[in-house]
Specification:
- The complex is a heterotrimer of chains A (287), B (317) and C (400).
- Chain A has 287 residues and is mainly α.
- Helix content of chain A is 76%, strand content 3%.
- Chain A has 11 helices and 2 strands.
- Chain A has a two-stranded antiparallel sheet with strand order 1-2.
- In chain A, strand 1 and strand 2 form a beta hairpin.
- In chain A, helix 1 packs parallel to helix 5 and helix 9 crosses helix 10.
- The radius of gyration of chain A is 19 Å and the shape is globular.
- Chain B has 13 helices and 4 strands.
- Chain B has a two-stranded antiparallel ribbon with strand order 1-4. In chain B, strands 2-3 form a two-stranded antiparallel sheet.
- By secondary structure, chain C is of the alpha/beta class.
- Chain C is built from 15 helices and 16 strands.
- A 7-stranded mixed sheet of chain C has the order 8-7-9-10-11-15-16, sandwiched between helices.
- In chain C, strand 9, helix 8 and strand 10 form a beta-alpha-beta unit.
Chain lengths: 287, 317, 400
Amino acid sequence: MEQVVQMIINGFVLGSNLVMVAMGFSMLIGIMRLIQFAHGEMYMLAGYGTWYFTVQLGFNYWLALFLSIAIVTVFGIILERYFLRQYRETLLPAVVVTVAWMMILETGALLMFGTASKAIPTVFSGTFSIKGIYLSKERLIVSLISLASIGVILLFMSKTKEGRAMRAVARETETATLMGVNLGRIFRLSMILATILAAAAGALLGPIFTMSPMVGVSMSIKALVAITLGGMGSVGGAAIASYMLGMIESFTGTLAGADFAMLIYFLTLILVLLIRPQGFFGFEYRL
Amino acid sequence: MPVKKFSIAILLAIFLVLPLVLSGFWVSTLISIMGTIVLTSGLRMIYITGRLSLGHTFPVGIGAYASALLCTKMGLNFWVSFLFGGLMAGLIALLLGYVVLRISGVYFVVVTLALAEILIHFLLWAKPLTGGVTGIVNIPGPIIYLPWIGRFEFGYELLPYYYLIFSIMFVSVAFMYLMERSHIGRVFHALRQNDLLAEHVGIDITSYRVLAFVVASFFAGLVGSFMAHFHHYTCPDDFHVTESLFIQIYAFIGGIGSLLGAIVGPLVIISVSELFRFAKEAQPLFYAGAMLLVIMWLPGGLITIPALLKKWRSKLS
Amino acid sequence: MKKMFRFVLDIGLVFFIVSFSIFSDPANGAQKELLIGTSLPLTGPGASYGIPDKRAQEIAIDQINNAGGVPVGGDKYRLKLLVEDNKYTTKDAFATVNKLVRDDGVRFLRVYGTAPVLATLDFMNKNRIVNFCVISEKGLSPKYPYTFRVYNTTYEVLPPYFSWIRKNMPHIKTIQSLMMDDATGYAITDALLLSAKYFGLDLTPNYAPRNITDFYPKLTEILTKKPDAIYAGGGSNWGMFWKGAREMGFKGQFLASTFHTEWAGIAGAQNLEGYVHCQTSLTSEALPKGLRDYRNIYFEKYKEEPIGLSIWGFIYIHVLATALQKAGTVDDPDKVKNVLETQTLDTVAGRYMFGGQSFYGTPHQLVSPGYITKFTGGKEVTIEVIPPEQVSELLKKVYK
């Protein structure tokens, strides 16, 4: 029984790991109609940035976190404006551009930081344990921050003017422009939010999961699976799907081995797409 | 002979003579390129029916393993295994096709990615059958019987494989070219442009899409099988998902508007990236940079260069 | 004025030509060049292993060349290393080895990585290339007469290690192991099971993906079995495993056949206190001086610690050079093969011999000393060295 509870907790943590990146990715697909293969690299870069500032330069962790997120976000804004915006609504050209950037960022990180995984020293040490179930303080705090971020984003999207504008653009771009929405600003805003989320995830999860240049790619693929399950364009759906996938990975990983777990992961995806192509909460998405 | 046909003939002749003068490294690179050309052409065929596949390593892997297993475990010769590889890939594409090709747009893309991942994890998981992560070793090469010479084993020679893959490429591309030129090809293009209309006119759109998918998968399976026998080894890592992404990228950068683009793409990009090999760890940077340059300045792909040059020349005069 | 200028220019030119011929390499005796090839992963997932190995080979080669080259049968050979990137894929391994053998005419090769080796073993042996493979599976066999291994697989390090554990930690009866679920991990587990069986330890194997990021699910599964010790090892990111184990309340013994210095930072030194493994750190006094010098040269040049595994690249070059010297030829692969199989080689990097007849069917595996190293007080301390002869005996017993 304890094992089941532990698996649930582990699944929750795995889900939290994914949720922030997946939500951002979902925003980009919904609002900019763009599969951003290089999104996982934002996560990776922020993680490395945090490592660099804390370990190499000795800054305080929170300062390092803030700086990394800021730098990566600025980079994201530039990337969006000059390389991504003109490829909205296209599929293949967007793939080419984003995959190219993925390679550049990954190789760049490899050249700058070397190949060994980097460790960021723990900020919150200690573990909670209740009756044989373990949860480290670090993971708990990060999971809570992830949950909080979901709340913040969802509130933002539904209550604020900007958020509503973003949703309008996602649904009906032309009508939104007619209503006076400045597309350029909305794109920039969504990129900022998405990048902050991914960067924050990278910086926060660095101490828990170690960083290597290859981390970006697997994150991108996992996020893609999450958003597809949750439904393209639905940020809430992406969040729910992330936790679901976390649970699948936790349970099958512990019980049946990693390869089988991944098989199930992807088979689930295909099955869901067959039955309900737009995922749980997505809307029709024609290209 | 019209100019175009003449220049193609010259090109083919060059291809046939090249391996005799090039170094071993470039011969094996050209072999890779030719295999990739078959893949990009097949991918393009799927594309023109209105579906984008980012999981072409799926049929390639099926072909490779089906062929390797038949050959090593059941002792059948290369030619039978080779054909079997292609047929298995085509068959599985057929079975999956009707189900999967109904899904449209981005979702279809994700499904193809998922299939490619599923293949890899299956190969890793089914260790007793597939050798798991170690793969299959000592896959024998083809043996043919020539007049005068008698029994000839390809072994580790490069040239016989070169001519073999050249023939495979020639047959596959010619087949796909003719298919595109025929009535079937016109239906394919119609599907991409407006499938609702096609459906209303009474065309069974899914069947046509399946046809393209199966044909592309069959040839992809043949290529997979060829590569497994050429390297005498195959393992799940050879079918990594990022390879699928790259194949699609080559097709696009070459110029997905025409079959020639699908041929030019791998030829140019792979050759250029091999030239950058000296950069060792930094090689991907050059490679990716080139990709970005092409897509930003040549959105129609590399084959639009002649047309662009013509435009500039007329502007200058 | 112009004439003056011309004059100075001419003098300068003459001076330049003369000095060039004086300072260029004198054609003395026979200063020849020997090409050595290596195909290793310089980009992609294996880069963190391939790049240090390449550097190690380069350092050894520079050492030899600076001392005048390898003396073989009256001539002195400068070694030249041709490096190719095999990206850890079949396709590139095949292409690069083909290039080195066919186009560059290399007769001595080192191929790094399980898949690259498996793809090219047959080809190299058919062409009688004396090759040194780095593959964590069994690999060696009488089928491949020219393939040697200068690299300890877990098969070589476990018997002395387990023998020591049995003697010095008798309270350990049950072990849970966690390995990567790839070729290397399966091979290591196979070795673990063989040694565990011989020494009467109850070992249960488990697997996880090499690039795993979260160990908690696996740890949950393993720790419920309440083992006396846990055995694991993978890349740098596996430091999280040890950290997670302590976070989950495990108080037992940590065992492994590797140690990455980053782990102290990742897992925390106090969590790793008492960790015992069977490699040795490169700064340990227990290592031959030549290997400690290697570490210092590497650190000075690249400003980072070389990974432990890279010493094999360094040792291999010296072993090969010494063998060539003893064989008296660079052109006859059978003579070189013979020397490697039968003679003890005293090199700058230490004293080595090849063995492993009983396990592999062919004596092509390097036999090196066994080490027991403990992580204590924040650093690694080598607490015991087992001489190669003793290791050889243990290997024969465990793998009879």
